[in-house]
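1st attempt posting a full record on here, be nice pls
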Amino acid sequence: MRRYLPLLWISFFLVILTITGTTYLVGYAGKDNKNALTSINVYTTLPVEEVAVLAQEYEKSAKVKVNITPLNEKELFNRLIDEAASPQADLILTNRRMLKQARNSALLIPYQSEYTDIIPSKFQDTDGYWVGIWYDPIVFAVNQDYFNSVTKKPAKWSDLSADTNLRLGMTDFIAADAAANLLYTLVAANGEEQTLNFLKKIHPHIVQYAKFLATPARMASMGEVDIAVAVRSETMRYEKDGFPVKIIYPEDGTAYLLTGTGLIRGAAHATEAKRFIDWLTQAEPQTIMAQHKFYFLPTNPELRTNLDNSAKNIKLLDHHDMYTIEQQRKLLDKWVQARLGIN
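the predicted structure (as C-alpha cells):
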C-alpha cells in the first residue's frame, strides 16, 4: 500500500489542479462572454449602409455591439411612443426634425460631455437633448467644361436665372425631404413671393426634376446639365471619383440637412450609449465614412482643418423647422402651381 501512496498524492493534486483550472477558465470565459454581449440598440432613419460601417468599426474599437433598426420617420416616432414605458432602444440617429419631435414629446433625456460641448450651438439642442454629428448642404454642382467656358462664374442663387442657355438639374421637392428643405429655407430667408418667382424663372431651364438626391450630381458630372442643385455628399462622391464636376457653395447661403443623435429616456444601456455618442463627435467616424464614400461635413469645428476654404466659410441658412407639416404642404402646393403656371 505504501508504494502506491505517492501515486495517490499525485492523482489528488492533479484533480485539484484540474478543478481549479476549469473554474478559472469558466470564470474567464464568462467574463469574456459578458463583454461580448455588451451592446446598444439604435433606431435610425438613415440608410442602413451608412450606419452599418460605423457600427462595425465601433464594435472593433470599443468591443460594444451596435444593433441597428432602420425605420422611416413615422415608424421611429411610433416605436418610441409605444415603448416609452420600457424602451427597447438606447438612442436614435436621425435628422434634426425627428430629434426635435422626440425631445418635445419627452422621449429623450439630456446628455452633455466635454465632447458634445465643443459642437456649435446651432448644431445641437440648447438643453443637451440631442447633438448634431454631421450635415449635408445643398450646393451648385457645376460641370467643369461649363465652368471653364463662362466668364461670370455662378456664385449666387440669382445667377441660375441669369444665363438663358443654362441647363439645370435638381431633385423634385416632393421626392425628397432634403430637397424640400431647400424650398422651406429659401422661403424663410427671402420670403414666399420672391422664392416662388425665382423657382418659376429657372423652371424652363430644368432638364429634369429628379426623383433621387444622387441624380442631379450625376447629371452635372456626365455633362447632361451645366449646373445641378445637389447635395454636397453626392457631388463630392463624383468629384473624388475623378468626374469633371466642381462644387460651389452659394455666397448668399444655402440649406442643409443635419443628422444627429439623442439618448432615449429610460435607455437600458445608457452608459454605453453615452460613450457611443461621444465617439460619434470625434474624428474616427468621419474618417470611416469618407473611406466608404460618405462625404458629410462634421459639426465638430476641430475636424474641419482638412476642408478647403470654401467649405470652411460656407454660409448656412437655417429656418429652424419654423413651418408646420400643414404649412409645408401648402408651400409645396404653391410651388407645383407656380411650376405649372397656375395662378
